[in-house]
Amino acid sequence: MQIIIKALKGFDLFEDKKSYVEEKFCKFEPMVKEPAVLEFTFEHTHGTRANIDKKVTLNFTMAGMTKAEHIEELDTHFPEAIDKLQKRFENFLSRYNDKLKNHR
User: Is the pTM of this model over 0.85?
Assistant: First the structure.
C-alpha cells in the first residue's frame, strides 16, 4: 500500500503529521487489495471564524475499484481531522469488503 502525503497552499507539513497519518492508516494494509494508493492532502483554509479551518482530504484507489473514493474532514487541528478521516475510511472499507463478500 502506497501512502502519499502532501500540503496545499504553500505551507510546510511537519514530520510529526506525516508519521501520525502513517501510524493511523498502515493498519488497513491487510484489508486492501494491492495495488492500493492512499493520497492525503493537507490544507489550511483560513476560512472560518471558529478556527475550523484544517482540512485533510483522502483519495483512495485499489485494485477492483472503478473510481476513487474521496473523503474530506475539517477540524480545528489536523490530528482531530485525521482521526475523523480514519473512522470514515474504516467504515468505507468494511462496507466495501462486505459488499464484495455478498456478491460472491
Answer: yes
